[in-house]
Each structure stands twice: as C-alpha cells, then as structure tokens.
Design a protein that fits this description.
Distance between the termini: 34 Å
Number of domains: 1
Structural class: alpha/beta
Radius of gyration: 17 Å
Strand content: 15-25%
Largest sheet: 8 strands, mixed
Shape: globular
Number of helices: 8
Amino acid sequence: MTASPPVFLDVDGTNIAVRHAAGRAPGVVWLGGYKSDMLGTKAETLAAWTAAEGRAFLRHDYSGHGESGGAFVDGTISRWLTQSLAVFRRYTEGRQVLVGSSMGAWIALRMTQELRKAGEDRVAGLVLLAPAPDFTAELVEPSLNDRQKHDLTEKGFFEEPSDYPNEPYIYTRALIEDGRANLVMTGPIDTHCPVHVLQGLADPDVPASHALKLTALMPADDVTLSLIPDGDHRLSRPQDLEMLVHAVDAMTQRTSARG
C-alpha cells in the first residue's frame, strides 16, 4: 500500500509534511522518534488500524525528518515542539490520544504541558513507547566521552553510528542546550490524563530504568507500565505492533467512556 502524498503546513518558514485522516473522536496523533519519519512501521500500523476503526489519525514529520523541509542539524526539542503544536492545532478537533515513540514521548509530554498552560484540555490520553523524555540530559550528556565533548566544543556537534547505513546520528550543542529548557522529569508529572507506557527490557538505547523513573513521577492510579521481556527499542515486531494497537484501542475506548 502506497501512502498518499502529504499536505504541507508552513511553520516559521519551514514546510512541515502532514498526513491527516478525518474520523471519529477521540482521534489518534502519532509523534515519531529522533531521526524517524511518519511512514515507519508503527505509524503505518496505526494508520491502517484507525482507518478500519473510522477514527481520526494525524501524523507529521519534524523539520529535517522524512518529507519535511529544513535541516536535521537545525532541529531542537523547542523547534520540533512548536511544529507539533502547530500541526495539532491546525488539523485536530476535540480530544486526542497522543502516541509518542522514543523522543516523540518527550514531545507528547511537552505538548500536554503547553496545551494545558494555554487552557486547552485536548489530550485524552498518552501511549508512550520506549519513552525517552529528557534524553539529552539523562542519557546523552552523562555518557559523553572526551572525543564527543571535544567535537561539541570545537564543531558544535558529534556523530554516532546509527542503524541507517551512511546516516549517522548527529547530536548538536544546540539540541543539548535546548533540551535543558524542556526537561519534564525534574519533579512530579501531572498529565491530567491516563498514561500507558510500553517498554522493552532488551532496549539497548533507552534502558528500562528510564521508563521506571518516568512512571514513578506520575500519579500511579492513572499509569500503566507494560514491560516486554525481549522487546528492543523499535518495538516493531508483529507481537509489539499488536500490543501497540491493543494499548491505543484500550485508551480510546477508555477516554470515549469518559466523554
């Protein structure tokens, strides 16, 4: 199945690629990870599921990702958050379930904060996969070696091998410094909505301890943590995708019942 062409939304002079399907509420909003795009396995699985359910579905590529404009190295959490909020406000109506993968979980938590700050009670629930909020401060900075520190100082970035041939992960000084202004794990996190976290215990990129720390900061009565013994960071195996759909389905049913 070939995805239909995206539409584009200009956000601060950058064309952000968006795919949106109308449907019933609560809708589902996909927020991808660092260096991923909206045509990945998990997003496509949710697109097919929401279409079959007749439920609204929204996804986009951050600047420097996928089909969006802009350079990847110019991206920061603040910039990608601004783009995500602009897309959300332009293409959704009513309450939505945010589904965030890895860095997308950080974006989802920050979106929830910013929407509530603006008086917009729009987030009905959160489903977070291998969540990596605060990853720049919690995971990247503490493990920097001398070479990486030198590159950050002298070049403004450092590179690391990735799962994509000839496409290393690039971490910029701007990303790391901006990350400190967007930290969410500095104290109790009140999302004002139910949260379901899916975390693989065989995740080499974001340790399960990070998910445990995150859930410990949230009100326990509204948080579900599902640990997948052999799950990796991508959580894209058939059994992982089945768990994802089940979690999102349960969240939409729960929030529909709440009104």
